[in-house]
Design goal:
The chain is built from 13 helices and 21 strands. By secondary structure, it is an alpha+beta fold.
Length: 471
Amino acid sequence: MIRIAFGIGPTVRASAVNVLTSLLYSEPLIAHESNGRPVAGLAESWTWSEEGRTLTLHLKPGVRFHDGTLMTSPIVIEFLNRSRFGPAAEVPLGFERITDITAADPQTITIRLARPDNFLLTELNELRLVHPSKPDIGTGPFRLIQRQPTVQARRFNEYHGGHPASDAVEIRTYETHRAAWAALMRGEVDAAQEVSRESVEFMEKSSQLRTYSTMQPYYMAVVFNQRHPVLRNRNVRQAISRALDRPGIVANALRGHGAVATGPIWPSYWAYESTLGPATYDPVAAAKALDREGFHKSAAATGPEVRFAIRCLFLNEDPQYERIALMLQKQLFDIGVQLDLEPVTMANLAKRAASGDFDALLARANAGRTLMFTYRFWRSSPDAQGAFWRTGYTGADAALDQLRESHSDNQTRAAVKALDQRFRKDVPAAFIAWTEVTRALNADVALDDPELYDPFTAIWRWVKSPGIPSP
């Protein structure tokens, strides 16, 4: 048995356990490579026709659910329609333009759209297939046995992808990341789903453990509320962005476990090719730009001279946010901008972000390995941006719509380029860094492919050394 420790930290909620659990027992119709390219999943192939308005899926033959039911077109269609005709707020973004789903034969599905939608394949990746009337019955390498008090799953011997290396997997939850890795150090578990930045160096020195660090499609950014009388000025936002020393923040606040970000587009995305270069760090030019906009330093009754003040929210439940916030405060003070830091809980941050009750906020956002999440975060329509933060920003709407309507590689590349240029010009946020995640496995657990960008995407292939008893 493989036992995994899952720390429920401030940025990882209990619902995230369900995501890890789903990797054990369910699978998507369309998979994605680390660069966002769609590849075969439960659908072994697909074709587009009618200029991106019809998608034909060809299901992999011989796939069975854990109850023995054969995966066929009618069952898959019933599952898709449950999502398509669910509550309006829960309908997947990529399903909004579907007009009809039919079965051409037991292994072929045709999906028709009112308009082209570049996010349909992405949504078929996000949505993991389960039996329509049995939500805990999937087609994955393990059968889900229970969810509480620990997640337990057993090997599915008829798995279409091959024979799972382990007979069972158990996921144990802990209140913190520290408690999770402590359990790993004690030998109570075989792996820790995520190791905090404060623990990585310590664990890397242990001969009992192997760590796997990978860049994740999550970026840190200072998001600007453009309803603020000062921040509605694009030149001001550009000046603030130029005053930030991103490499310094990555090296010091993130302890080197990250990479400089210039925008919200996943830099490994297959259609992304930035021609704009890295973000410029030039505090002198930033100060001069603020002078040109009429924001001069003025004497205050008490304290130093400042140009203006911005209230910035940040998460008070994770030390790295405070480290970043303090560095931002110092760097902006150097150009005469007062950054008033306001630590808040995750619940309060989410509530105030969604209502627009902030000047700026330091947040970590999901870019995804495709661009659907970028659309969700930055498209100004109520069903997209409103769910995350309200900033009054509409500048990327046209480029995002162009991306969504794209139905060829060339169109997608052109749309991504336009979107990249728009974010760099408008600066709706000061994009700071891409973050890194570190997984830790007991040295007795081997990966058949150590080059996996994330070992947790293939838990069923982990091999535990023979003769090593589970604790």
